[in-house]
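fwd from M.: "can u put these together and see what the complex looks like"

so here's what she sent:
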Amino acid sequence: MMKRTDQGLSLVELLVGASILSIFIVSLVVVFQNLLVRSFNSVERVQASYLLEEGIEAVKALRDENWDENIDGLTFGDTYYLDYVSGLWIPVSSQPEFIDGVFDRSFILEAVERDGNDVITDSGTVDPNTVKVSVFVSWAQGTATTTRTLETYITNFHE
Amino acid sequence: MNKNGGYTLIETVIYTSILALLLMVVANTLIVVVTIYREFDMRRDVQDSAITSLERMTKEIRNAQSVSTSGSAFNTNPSTLVVSALDGSTPVVREFAIVDGVLRLYEDGVDQGPLSSTDVEITNFVVRFSDTEHSELVKIEMTIQGSDGEYQRNFYNSTILRGSYND
C-alpha cells in the first residue's frame, strides 16, 4: 500500500477505478445487445407459429376440397409444399420461394395404423381414412437453422 | 512524485483525458441503452398487435357459420371481412376493418374497439376467401409497421370456418 498523508488519488488507483467502471458499463451494453437479439428472434418465432398454424389449416382445406386427389393422391413420406392459387390451397412438390424470403414451409403426410380396438398404433392395420400431417417451418437464425413442427391427424369424414 | 502532494501538469493532463474518455463511454452507453429500449418497445408493439389481431380474428372466423361475400371486400388492401356467427342461438354479424391503419372489430355494426395498437400501423391487410367443396376458408395477410416507419413484419394465417361444415 502506498503511504499517504495529504495526497490525492494516484494515477494507478485512478486507472484501476476506471477499468472497473468500464467493465461494468461494457457488461451492461452486452446484456442489452443480447436482449435485442432475443427480441428479434421473438418476432420471428411468432411469425413462424402462425405459418405453422396456417399450414395445418391449409392441409385441412386440401382435405375439404378433395381427399382422393389432395391427400390420398400424394405420396406418403414425401415432402410437399403449399401454394395458394386462384383462391385455393394446393399441394406442390417443388419448393417455392421462401415466405418473405425467410421462412421455408413444408409438410409430410404419413399413413396411420390402428390396432384391433381402433387405437392408433405403430403396427396394425392401415386406416385409409386417417392420415398424420406434419408441418415444418424453418428459418435461419444467425448461423443456425431453426425448425418448428406441428403435427395432427386428419380424417376423411366427408366420405 | 511531488513532495508537496500536489499534481504535476502532466498528471493533470492524463487525469483529464482519462476522465473525458470515461465520460464519453458513459454517455455513449446511455445513448445505446435508450436506443435499444426504443427498438425493443417498437418490436413488442408490432408483436403484440399481431398476436391480438390474429388470435381474435382466428377465434371469430373459426366460430362463424359463413362469410358474407357481399359485405366483405376481398383481395384488396385494405380488405374488409364480414362473417356471420351464432352466439348460442343469437345471430351476430362481425366485421373486421382497417380504420386509419388500425384493425377494428364491429359487432352488428357497433364498434368493439381496436385490435391493433395505435402505436403501429397496419400497412397491408388482405383477406382472401376460399370456398372448398365442404368448407369455407379465410386467408389473412397482414403487414404491421412499427412507429419508426421502417420496421415492418408480415403475418399470415388461414382459418376454416368450423360452422361452414354442412355436409
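replying to her w this: The interface with chain B takes residues 5-8, 11, 14-15, 18, 21-22, 25, 28-29, 32-33, 35-36, 39-40, 42-43, 46-47, 50-51, 53-54, 57-58, 60-61, 64-66, 84, 87-89, 99-100, 158 of chain A (CB under 8 Å).
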